[in-house]
Amino acid sequence: MDLYLDTASIKEIEEIASWGILDGVTTNPTLMSKEKGDYRKILRRICDIVQGPVSAEVIATDHEGMVVEAKDLAKISEHIVIKIPCTVEGIRATRRLSTDGIRVNMTLVFSLNQALLAAKAGASYISPFVGRLDDRGEEGLRLIEDIVTLIHNYDFPTRIIFASVRHPYHVREAALIGADIATIPYKVFKLLITHPLTDLGLERFLSDWKKR
Ligand code: G3P
Predict the structure, then answer these.
(1) Nearest CA residue ID for atom 7, ligand 1
(2) Labelling 75: which of 39, 139, 140, 163 has CA 20 to 30 A away?
(3) pLDDT tens, position by position, 87-135
């Protein structure tokens, strides 16, 4: 399973990338709005650090505008993947962009039927937002299970990004269900490696070693 960081913070990306296991990054307008500076420069820097897929989202809501914006964003780096919202206009834009060889990450996916249409439109990635469904008392994990089945049933080349991760349990479930990718907020990413028994065990090993 590939692990992406869900952030636009250069500091966070540099830190996690230094672990040597970061495969990509996803951003969105909310995450970009938290960062100071020119967004194109920020995206270019993220691509340089990660050297893997970096999702950048369009702001336009009509398909013509989405395509223009997407083509402009794609010029930033070969690593840029265009995030397009899952609407009728988004599906139309995705069809056009995928035909032109521009990779799309269809975002704001909340149902199996949306995922089906995104895959048919040629999206390279689809991002079901698990946490936001869970927040409403709906079954986010069930949606991922269903989309995994859909993609396998029809052999779509689309990759599934487990998005809107809230806690380490989501990452565990993503791996067990067979999502291709989990995109994880910085705070949750750091929690993936920690366990109190690891810390205690290491402390004991080191103190025993000193007594030899
Ligand atoms: O990648 C999707 C993600 O940014 C949405 O997460 O936490 O805003 O639901 P959240």
Answers:
(1) 164
(2) 163
(3) 999 999 999 999 999 999 999 999 999 999 999 999 999 999 999 999 9
Residue with tokens 């390279």: 124
Q: What is the pLDDT of residues 36-61, one digit of tens each?
A: 999 999 999 999 999 999 999 999 99
Give 198 Cα–ligand 1 centroid separation in angstroms.
30
Contact 91, 123 (CB under 8 A): no
Residue 138 CA to residue 135 CA, distance in Å, equals 7
Residue spans per domain, the chain: 2-210
Give Cα 84 distance to the centre of its chain.
13
Give 2-210's CATH code, choosing from 3.20.20.70, 3.20.20.80, 3.30.420.340, 3.30.530.20.
3.20.20.70
C-alpha separations of 38 from 41, 46, 59, 73, 95 in Å: 5, 12, 16, 13, 29
